[in-house]
Amino acid sequence: MQRFIAQIKRLPVQTVVTGNQALDLDSFCSSLLTAYFETLNGRQCTPLIPIDREDLRLRKDVELILTRLDINMDSLLFLDEFSTNTETPLFLVDHNLQFMQGKVTGIIDHHAPESDKTMDDNINPMVLSRCSSAMSLVLKYYNEKLDLKKLFASDPLLAPLAFAPIAIDTSNFFNMKPEDITAYQFLANFINQIPDTITFQTVRDARKDITGLSYSDLLRKDFKQWEEIGISTLPKRFHKLDLEELSCAMIDYKNKLGLEVLAAMACGKKGRDFAYLGPKEFDVVTACSDMELILQKEVNGVQFFSQMQTTYSRKMVAPILRQAYAKFKQQ
Ligand SMILES: [Mn+2]
């Protein structure tokens, strides 16, 4: 794996493997391992980190993994260093809606299908299954293609890269679907390869560490866009943030990206928050009634809600908001 990473920038780019734009740990690690396994499987792949190099500092959990595993950041290829074109074969991991130029040739993802287009063409593999971590699906798929046991036993980098996102996405192996359980059982064989410095706690703390980040950094840190709609997931509940500053940052960010709607979400043990900035005529409370929104405050035109449907993360909220907004625009 170290050798594979060292060669990323030296080899010609053929198939590009990319995680989602939010670049959480799942996207980062899953795309890296998929590119490596797929290359071993006979299709030469280049992992492309879908954010600007400068923005890696916003993801302290990813930084932590890189540092603790001695992975040289300079070897990685970032979005501002490479452009795909319409012919570039793309392998989407941890998302299924293409957001950069190219032809989709493979998908391994655990989100709901994000477009009808995802379903056609000769996409191989086409792995779409709802479990907690895309990494669980990566392990499941390549376990059938390669001798993963042997690979993991001989390469100390693989187990921690697979372990960290699954630990985070399952809240420390608590919230597991069948694929996550299988992955967990597989990784249990290699538990002694995972450094003490990479645990659920250390990774979660790094992920929540926002020291030195501005409000606009927070909006950019975990952001996903579907055409005219963007949703940021914030690492802190709204009552712990300065809503005056947050609303100004949201207005700037929405204008900068030319969005029609910018939403922000946050969650904690005791509940969920949702913020909406967009056309006033769009009544988000009624249109997205499943989310059970209760208005708490309006600051500079940004509406801040409590989201009473606390089981709905961005994975669930995004399709609801997109559909409701599409319906609103048709009127
Ligand atoms: Mn994921």
TrEMBL record:
Q: Which Pfam families match?
A: DHH, DHHA2
Task: Report whether Chloroplast shows up as a keyword of the record.
Answer: no
GO CC list: cytoplasm
Q: Which cofactor does it need?
A: Mn(2+)
Q: Which UniProt keywords apply?
A: Hydrolase, Manganese, Metal-binding
A single MF term (Gene Ontology): metal ion binding
Q: DHHA2 domain: which residues?
A: 200-325
Q: Does the keyword Manganese apply?
A: yes
Taxonomically, which superkingdom?
Answer: Eukaryota
Q: Name the chain's protein.
A: Exopolyphosphatase
